[in-house]
TrEMBL record:
It comes from Ureibacillus endophyticus. Pathway: Cell wall biogenesis; teichoic acid biosynthesis. It comes from the Bacteria. This is N-acetylglucosaminyldiphosphoundecaprenol N-acetyl-beta-D-mannosaminyltransferase. Keywords: Cell wall biogenesis/degradation, Glycosyltransferase, Teichoic acid biosynthesis, Transferase. It is an enzyme of class 2 (transferase). Its EC number is 2.4.1.187. One of its GO terms (biological process) is teichoic acid biosynthetic process. It holds the Pfam family Glyco_tran_WecG.
Amino acid sequence: MKETVLGIKVNTENYDELIEEIFNRIEKKEKSLIVAINPEKIIKAKEDPALKKLLNEAEFQIPDGIGVILASKIQKGQITERVTGVDMMMRLCAESAKHQKPIFLYGGKPGVAEKAAAKLKELYPTIRVAGTQDGYEKDNEKVLSKINEAKPDILFVAMGSPKQENWINANRDKLHPTIYQGVGGSFDVLAGNVKRAPEAFQKVGMEWFYRLMKEPKRIKRQIALPLFLLEVARGSKRK
């Protein structure tokens, strides 16, 4: 099920429900893109028709950001929990290890994807990492060939959004994988180059506040959240 937040579709299911649906799609070979939706992207999509189209045409739009949960509450919707990009990646890896569905990591600086793969093998000893490729290879055909030769079921692409989703959409018809997820800086988190917020912050949806304390210059981005919620509230009153 999906609901719409300021013109952008968002899935209402929790992790378990989404994982089940995603792995059903692998069995049916139904190619699918997973995009993470947060208030910042929704606001940008209002001004950028290409971004709006990209987000709405994805097969899965996960509610990554406490702002999306609050927006759903304001409009009396069905989204009750966050489904973050990095946690979705980890859930997919755990499930792929159980079912022996190979994965491939593409993107990041040289060496980062390999380190991330090593960490995944440590966390999930039965995981099948079919291959890795850094994001600095200029020859796109070479990248496509490497992925296709590895024959993964799931491809994680770390290039930053929306570049990673645009790359997926431009190439997925030529690629072997069934499931595609743009994962931003998740390889750096797995490789140990970037630290996530402590679990206490994650559990209450306050990762944004932890990042703000670490990087005060993010304040301009965070000011957008109350404006976003105000717009959602106005929209729900007009209905």
